[in-house]
């Protein structure tokens, strides 16, 4: 079982092997008191998820929505890696991809363990472009299709400014969603993921504010 407080990171090192590992995001699982932390692949981390209890509809809904929410962040980050002019903006995009990619794998494994898996958009009440619920309510912070199209067409400093604007709003939405589920969940994995989202994305919001 993963210890409380595990985090997701892209590890780096000086030799060739460590450099190769840097390209593959990894999960740090803290050890018991007096023991060293372990570095795991996302697949190994998923295997250590706590045994599923009775599925909670709110937890399942949160995990499904956050998979989709993270997916859009990865989409915008891929654009930034190709189009950003500022090296610091590309660095933020790299960190987002390094953390949210593995989180998606862990969330999908959690959903599969509860028989609630499937590709984004398969779960009940989900719509395109981050909508959910019977009335098509948009998830907090999600970029609209026209905003994504504008980002894809932007270049240079205009791209950087729009990316920072959209990603800051996106992160603020993720923090809102995570804070809401922390108020209701009793699931260890959901709690750990939501806590990590709040800490990581608030730090990234501060970095983006310094660049805006």
Describe the structure.
A hairpin with a 4-residue loop joins strand 5 and strand 6 (137-138). The chain folds into two domains: 7-46, no CATH class; 50-211, Ferritin, core subunit, four-helix bundle (Ferritin). Helix 3 packs antiparallel against helix 6, helix 4 (87-113) packs antiparallel against helix 7 (188-211) and helix 6 runs antiparallel to helix 7. It is mainly alpha-helical. It is built from seven helices and six strands. A three-stranded antiparallel sheet has the order 1-2-3. The radius of gyration is 17 Å and the shape is globular. Helix content is 60%, strand content 8%. The termini are far apart.
Helix content: 55-70%
Which segments are poorly predicted (pLDDT under 50) over 5 or more consecutive residues?
1-6, 9-14, 16-22, 120-136
Alpha-carbon distance between the termini?
A: 40 Å
How many separate helices?
7
> Into which percentage range does the β-strand content fall?
5-15%
Q: Mind telling me the C-alpha Rg?
A: 17 Å
The biggest beta sheet, please?
A: 3 strands, antiparallel
Q: Give the overall shape.
A: globular
Structural class by helix and strand composition = mainly alpha
Q: Please name the fourth-level CATH homologous superfamily of the largest domain.
A: Ferritin, core subunit, four-helix bundle
User: What is the residue-averaged pLDDT?
Assistant: 81
Task: State the name of the first-level CATH class of the largest domain.
Answer: Mainly Alpha
In CATH terms, what is the fold-level topology of the largest domain?
Ferritin
Q: Helix and strand string, N-terminal first?
A: EHEEHHHEEEHHH
InterPro entries: DUF305_CopM-like, Ferritin-like
Organism: Streptomyces triticirhizae
Protein name: DUF305 domain-containing protein
Pfam families: DUF305
